[in-house]
Amino acid sequence: MSVQQQQQQQQFQSIPLDNVESQWEMLFNRFDRNRDGKISINELHHVLKQGAGEQYNIPPKVLAIIANKADHNQDGYINFREFLHLMEEEPIAKSLTTNLFNKYVHYTIVPRGPPRLRTAGVDRTDGDYEDEYSCNPPALCMVIVSLIEVLIFTWDVLKMKTTESIHGPMASMFIYNPHRRREAWRFLTYMFVHVGQTHLTVNLIVQLLLGVPLEMVHRGWRVVLIYLSGVLAGSLATSVTDPSVYLAGASGGVYALITAHVATIIINWSEMECAIYQLLIFAFLITFDFGSSIYNRYFVAVDNQIGYTAHLAGAIAGLLVGVYTLRNLNVRPWEKKLCWSCFVIYILLTGSGVMWNVLFPEYFSKEQY
């Protein structure tokens, strides 16, 4: 045992038995930040994880069960008496929290500068984001959106008797037609139109693989909101930069989901495992696809008229709306400013696209009916 550890043990043993409760109260007060006499179960879960979970390699779910057990009245919070009962009476919790108490004494009783319960430079919360994955409620929103896209495509295929259903009745009604911009629903409903089987299949695979995991952490309404914001941004941006291009497909929404993952990595960096590797993977995918789209559009002698502007706008929308909308497990002051900045930027960009369409009709080709 090192000299430092001996000093720590002696300091801990020197605390009078009748003063132990006051030491637990001091620890409780450190995590009762708003001084309302209670701390949330999530906060206690993090305390247990920092104090004992990593040393003994206790699974996060077990720590969560221990934390929830302290909440006798099941109100989502524990008061000091519940906290004290957990720390001193529950055998499992008592053995796990001994290390926490030792750390507390070492960093707060022994004079060593500013007191803290974490080692400098070491992130003690990695993996908290992964602990949030849940199938309750079921992640069904992106599944439902995908089913609607399949049903509309199938209807047109049956009507046209070909998988190239772009001229089917549903496609004709929903596609973004630059000459019929007054039919405002087209700025969103083009996401239901697909050129062919491959186009539909690729979009379905990507949006389910990316959307369902987001729903499991952030809930479906947030993911759908991001998806639709990307679709709308894609059509508005295309109407301004490529006023003669038709749009079909959910690529704007798909790209919004891609950058929504980037957004959640940014705002939950300290709570995620391998955040840097995830960020690099998404950055590579985005860069590769954008590069391919631009190359095919301008350097290959094929008139494919890919609306890469919709991809780019959808990606920007997903990042901006994602930072503002997605759950942030540990909100820091600078992140609040970032969230509001992203919200304002998205509103300004979207509003500019809408106003351009309304105020400058001469910029566009004459509408055809």
Automatic annotation (TrEMBL):
Database matches in InterPro entries: EF-hand-dom_pair, EF_Hand_1_Ca_BS, EF_hand_dom, Peptidase_S54_rhomboid_dom, Peptidase_S54_rhomboid_met, Rhomboid-like_sf, Rhomboid_IM_Serine_Proteases
Reactions catalysed according to its record: Cleaves type-1 transmembrane domains using a catalytic dyad composed of serine and histidine that are contributed by different transmembrane domains
Native organism: Macrosiphum euphorbiae
GO BP: any one term: proteolysis
Name by which UniProt lists this protein: rhomboid protease
List of catalytic residues: 251 (nucleophile), 311
Subcellular location, record wording: Membrane
Membrane-crossing segments per the record: 139-158, 187-211, 223-240, 246-267, 274-294, 306-326, 338-359
Membrane topology designation: Multi-pass membrane protein
Keywords: Calcium, Hydrolase, Membrane, Protease, Serine protease, Transmembrane, Transmembrane helix
Boundaries of every EF-hand domain copy: 19-54, 58-93
